[in-house]
Amino acid sequence: MLEPGISLEQKRVVRRDDCITFLGADVRPSLATPAMIKWMEFCCRDAIFPHLEEGNDSVGVKVSVSHVAATPMGQQVTYAATVAEVDGRRVRFAVEASAGTEVVGKGTHERFVVDVKRFAARLRKKFG
User: Fold this and answer.
1) Position 116 in a domain
2) Residue 6 gets which letter from DSSP?
3) What does DSSP say about strands 76-87 and 56-67: parallel, antiparallel, or unpaired?
4) 1 lies in some domain
5) How far apart are the C-alpha atoms of 32 and 49, rounded to whole Å?
6) Coil/strand/helix, residue 55
7) Torsion angle (degrees, nearest 10) of CA 39, 36, 92, 88
8) Contact indicator for 61, 77 with CB cutoff of 8 Å
9) Which structural domain, as residue segments, surrounds residue 37?
10) How confident is residue 85, by pLDDT bands cut at 50, 70 and 90?
């Protein structure tokens, strides 16, 4: 059963494919905002997945996140997700990314619980 307070933390090391590299040779590769958001979303999904009925999963529908500090490649980031609200099939999370004691990102993320078979059928119908 989904309820506020469900939470999860996941630790990941910043890899090259998580980084921006376009600022030139003088700037060390660092965590890109889209990669940070991706790992926040995975953390949210993984937090609630064990609490869902068989055949259900969740998809992201809204992100409101600030990326407030740079994190160099090779540093470990802790991603934290906590269910803040459940409204039917909509689940709102508080999310945070931190490296050591420094918060590098925070905000909210919403996911929608879906029946995987129905979701797949809608996609097949829409995209052939």
Assistant:
1) yes
2) -
3) unpaired
4) no
5) 26
6) coil
7) -40
8) no
9) 7-127
10) very high
Question: If you average pLDDT over every residue of the chain, what do you get?
Answer: 96
The pair of structure tokens assigned to 10 is: 């996941």
Q: Is the pTM of this model over 0.85?
A: yes
Query: CA torsion, points 8, 14, 15, 16, in degrees to nearest 10?
Result: 140
**Total of domains in the chain:** 1
Beta pairing class for 56-67 and 30-31 = unpaired
CA gap 122, 120 in Å, rounded: 5
Output the 3-class SS for 66-127. Answer: EECCCCECCCEEEEEEEEEEEECCEEEEEEEEEECCEEEEEEEEEEEEEEHHHHHHHHHHHH
Q: How far apart, in whole angstroms, are the C-alpha atoms of residue 41 and residue 33?
A: 12
* pLDDT in the model for residue 21: 83
